Amino acid sequence: MNSLAENTKDAREARILKDVQILGQCERFKAEFGEVIRFKINDEVYDLYIEGEYPIKPPRLFQVLPQNNFFGSDLVEALLGSSWSEMNSISDLIKNLPTSFLGKYHLGSTFPLYLFNQFPIFTCIALNPTNFKETGVSKLVISSTYLFHIQDFKGKAGHLVSFGTLKGIKYIKTSRDNKKISINWRGPVDLIQVFKSNNAIEIAEVILTNLQKKGIKTKRLKLNQQLIKEEDVSPQWALRIKINEIESEIIETELELERELSKNKINALIQLYQKAIEYYSALGDDKFDSYLGKIRGLMGNPDVLKALTEENQVVVKEESNIAKEIEEQEIWPVNINN
Questions:
Q1: What is the mean pLDDT of residues 306-311?
Q2: Do the beta carbons of residue 132 and residue 325 sit within 8 Å?
Q3: What is the pLDDT of residue 109?
């Protein structure tokens, strides 16, 4: 007498074989937590990723070739125009292929790491940004467009914890020992992620290179001053060092404001922004627009306006050690419109 589990397994296999017949010539193989049926429509290659009790559990459909900016995203809902139902079949998907629809990344679901073997993948340890306590082994996958944070599971793909476009990164810092990396994301409330990795510099370099390929200007700053020789001193050199000091102070003040909003610190940061604006304006440098945008963003923040208008207003945020631990270099996208 067959068990319920055996009957379910047989029904699943029968359904997969039926889909294979519909697809015609295709390839079937194991991948991480499930299996894949790879097929071709015209000149485009797709993977039907099946996991768990299919078709009760929705499959995922990935475009493998040609690659696009949303590589690895799931096309199922876009093609159906609704959520998957066990009454749907592979025919409902392939009749809409090829497609220009944009796919979806599923937070909390298993991530198809097998698709990303041609991209840089870094194993690291995620840290709590407020106290630097370890929260688990992770993988960072860097595509041409996205940064994916994946919770590691016995060396397999694991679950997608977070993702964001590279253009959404405000700045990156690496620690002096080059074993920690902090990623600060743009947004109404800045999100900070911190990871421990022996490849911290390499992670930053990959992100920087991908940003530059997209025409996004970046800037590096070292906060520690190097020793100088007397013969190096000149008016031009002194002017350059002055703006380096101003920009280093800007970074430190921005980090202080992430922990505590006070009227004095806000005014100090505004004055530093104004000095940078004057400097780059005189040179006709595009960085003038960047600092002008920083002032506008600062003054458009409701918490900042509240701190400026209320007497002795101080907003203390959760304690952070980032200013002390993450202070070696910054990679800062200064043009987010490209």
A1: 72
A2: yes
A3: 87
pTM of the entire predicted model: 0.63
Give yes or no for a contact between 15 and 22, defined as CB atoms under 8 angstroms apart. no
The arithmetic mean of pLDDT across residues 132-155, rounded, is: 87
**Averaged pLDDT for residues 69-94:** 89
Q: Cα–Cα distance between 50 and 65 in angstroms, integer?
A: 19
**Is 84 within 8 Å of 50 (Cβ atoms)?**
no
DSSP state of 317: P
The mean-pLDDT minimum among 16-30, 253-267, 321-335 falls in 321-335
For 12, other C-beta atoms within 10 Å of its C-beta total 17
Cα–Cα distance, 241 to 163 (Å, whole number): 37
* CATH classification for the domain delimited by 113-220, as one of 3.40.140.10, 3.40.50.10240, 3.90.550.10, 2.30.29.30: 2.30.29.30
CB 188 within 8 A of CB 303: no
Q: Could you state, in order of their start, the residue ranges of all structural domains in the chain?
A: 4-94, 113-220, 222-324
* Element housing 202 (H / E): helix 200-213
